[in-house]
Amino acid sequence: MSDIDSFKKFNDTYGHKTGDEVLKEFAAAISESIRSIDRAGRLGGEEFLIVCPETNLSGAVLLAEKLRAVVESIKIEPLPGITASFGCASYTRGDTMDSLISRSDKAMYKAKELGRNRVESLA
Question: What dihedral angle (degrees, nearest 10) is formed by the CA atoms of 118, 3, 96, 52?
């Protein structure tokens, strides 16, 4: 799971048109940086979910670090820069879609609490 850092500030400071541009650029950067078997989609607001089949937790963390760097390289004038926080979790026996998403969400909020523009994981 990923959340664009300080997205509300972009909208409030630069307007919704710039916010929409951030969302489009973010989505394009993520889509271009994942494998063909992976799926990415917007959950709502500035939150996105990336599903990576046949990927263990360490692989998901490596991908999230790559995506974090890709997002950081996005340049949209007049913004000072774009960053995102990522939370990773992997399927364990007995998981439901809700429990898996909940763990990735908790990991993402941990990344935000620890300073943003980082990747955290929960087993």
Answer: -70
